[in-house]
Amino acid sequence: MTLHNVSSGVQRLRTYLDAFAGCAERGEMCGIYAMLSDSHQFSPELQEAVSQLAHQEIQMIKDIITSGQNSGEFKTVLLPDELAVIVCSTLKGALMLNRLPPHDTYSGTVNALIKMLDTRT
User: Fold this and answer.
1) Which of 20, 21, 52, 64 is 20 to 30 Å from the Cα of 1, by its Cα?
2) Which three-class secondary structure state does DSSP give residue 43?
3) Whether the Cβ atoms of residue 63 and residue 42 lie closer than 8 Å to each other
4) pTM, entire model
5) pLDDT tens track for 65-83
6) pLDDT band at residue 1, thresholds of 50, 70 and 90?
7) Which residues pair with 118 in a beta bridge?
8) Which one-letter DSSP state was computed for residue 4?
């Protein structure tokens, strides 16, 4: 199943965020952002590849947010570009903090993000 097969808005964002649930359960980070943190030590070609992956992910989140705003399910206080960075940063930070006991930061953060964006709450 692809994200485009999931209805826009809250369900699509939750599907995207849930894709990282296995990483959270295993105490893992997102591979792209784990590499990004040390990418200054990589060859220029590898730096560019990691950068492109990170930008593609931000664009994917932006598309999810835009579709949710267009459907009226997401609050439109901020621009999709701004919200995409906030969602991505929050997600990656939650994965990192989920490594600390009681290991529930990820699920709580996902629920908070949805609640923060959902016009129905």
Assistant:
1) 52
2) coil
3) no
4) 0.90
5) 999 999 999 988 899 999 9
6) low
7) 74
8) G
